[in-house]
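Supplementary notes for students who missed Thursday's class. We covered one full example, reproduced here. Read the sequence, then the structure, then the short commentary at the end.
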Amino acid sequence: DFENSNKWMIAALDKTDDRPSVLSAIAYDYIGQDEYCKAIKYLSEFIENLSSGDLTNDTTRNNLISNSYNLTICYNRCEKLDSAAIVYRRIIELDPKHDKALTGLGRYFSETARFAADSANRYRGEGDTASASKWMAMRDSEFDSALVYYKIVFDLKPEDVRTAEDYGILSYIRGNYEAAAFAFARVSELSPDNISNWTSLGDTYINLKSFKKAADAYEKVAEAKPDDRDILEQLRDLYVETKQSQKKKDIEARLKAL
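Structure (token representation):
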């Protein structure tokens, strides 16, 4: 019974000789109840105690890292994203290759970038172009910060589909089409049935003016969506661009039959 257990442990906090253990027990009992916001106070104090220990000791250091990451989960569940970001940074100081913390910071900056973009759109709609420009500059800066962390994780975990996809999308948003093409090509190798990725890869190659590669990607999409007029029309245009006349005629016949 987590709730009754916590009542007794909270009452015992000021009387126990082993406060850190009780703090940990209270925090994880709250987490067990999905009471993440209530867990934060106790888990934070427990982590402070761990931080004062011998961090040259691998066990102490790893214990601090794992509990700190659990604290970021609590902060995120309670929509305290700024606090989670602070803890992510502390984790990275302890372990520069902690992929979950690096990913967490990447997502944090992606969220702040989207908030900035929404603010820019709102000011633009109100006719306040100066404020809109400031928010757009912030959006670009935040996306660039997100890219820094996603790139590190992409290099650390080259076989992770989600990471490659996220890195590709952000690279595309920021106009770094070569990086986006590399990432989307990686996804196509790891997850060849991911049709939306083939579309992203094709669009990226179009921006790079690599029309033959774009056509190859869109052919994969057309195989999965044979009756999608938009896809077929895009593929037809690519065949025109690459002077593939017979394939163009075949696509036109398919379009006419729709």
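Commentary. The chain is about 80% helix and 0% strand. The radius of gyration is 25 Å. If anything here is unclear, bring it to office hours.
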